[in-house]
Design a protein that fits this description.
- The protein has a single domain, classed as Alpha-Beta Complex (Creatine Amidinohydrolase).
- It is α+β, with helices and mostly antiparallel strands.
- Helix content is 30%, strand content 24%.
- The termini are far apart.
- It binds magnesium ion (2 copies).
- One magnesium ion binds next to loops.
């Protein structure tokens, strides 16, 4: 069932989405070579709770298989759902950080992929294209369009124009009182296909884009997804309000991007391009 929110509910949900963005901004400030991905998770959980939120992902899942952390942290060939752990970030890594916050009855959900130091130019290009593809999807999140219009816009740009692999097994989704609501929002598809979009739906639009093959594997931890060819993968996500004309992001990358530019450890040259 697809939930249509009231304007009041959307403003409440915007606060949850912006708390996710604030958390990812903290991450952008904190990142540097040598820190463990577990330390990023611990910092983020404290930040979320100090600000009156609850990490949406911690304890999420089915009875026998719940996600044990506040962030999904997926490094290099890890696509999504990575476990924070003792791995120490090193120069040349990319790190996808997915964050959800539950506050005042609504979830926000957003993800960002960061470059650590001197990352291969072809990987930086993957990051730029994947980020841009989110906005191409958001532009199609317009009242009267269909889900397939979002999917097509993302596919056409990432695969059609750039030849990247699009993860097919994992998709975007409605988001609101529940972290995952209908409809599913695939990152590939045809114009005019799928459910009709109505004003005041809220969708998590989240392309997961691989430098190489679209094929993926699941790790033995039951969660971490990696690319089958071990090439890098990028993930950007915005909680998005379906409106007349085009969608509006409830989450924001502005603070994250400013923190990224100011964090000397991340190699500011990346952000001049
Ligand atoms: Mg997410
Ligand atoms: Mg999501």
């Amino acid at each position: 069932m697809i939930h249509i929110k009231s304007k009041e509910e959307i403003e409440i949900q915007r606060k949850s989405a912006l708390m996710v963005s604030a958390t990812l901004t903290q991450v952008a400030t904190f990142l540097k070579p040598g820190i463990t991905t577990l330390s990023i998770d611990q910092m983020a959980e404290a930040f979320i709770r100090d600000n009156g939120g609850v990490p949406s992902f911690k304890g999420y899942g089915s009875k026998n298989n719940t996600f044990p952390f506040s962030l999904c942290i997926s490094v290099n060939e890890a696509v999504v759902h990575g476990f924070p752990n003792a791995y120490e970030l090193k120069d040349g890594d990319i790190i996808s950080v997915d964050c959800g916050v539950y506050m005042n009855g609504f979830h926000g959900d957003s993800a960002y992929t960061f470059a650590i130091g001197n990352v291969e130019p072809e990987t930086l290009q993957l990051l730029r294209v994947t980020k841009e593809s989110v906005y191409r999807g958001v532009a199609q999140a317009a009242e009267g369009n269909r889900v397939g219009d979002i999917s097509y816009a993302i596919e056409q740009y990432t695969h059609g124009q750039h030849g990247y692999g699009i993860v097919r097994e994992l998709v975007g989704h409605g988001v609101g009182k529940h972290l995952h609501e209908d409809p599913q929002v695939p990152n590939y598809g045809r114009r005019g296909d799928g459910k009709r979009l109505k004003a005041n739906m809220v969708l998590a639009i989240e392309p997961m884009i691989n430098l190489g093959t679209h094929n993926i594997n699941q790790a033995d931890d039951g969660w971490t997804i990696t690319t089958a060819d071990k090439k890098p993968s990028a993930h950007f996500e915005h909680t998005t309000w379906v409106r007349k004309g085009k969608g509006e992001t409830l989450s924001s990358f502005e603070g994250i991007e400013a923190a990224e530019r100011n964090n000397k450890e991340l190699n500011s040259e990346h952000y001049q391009q």
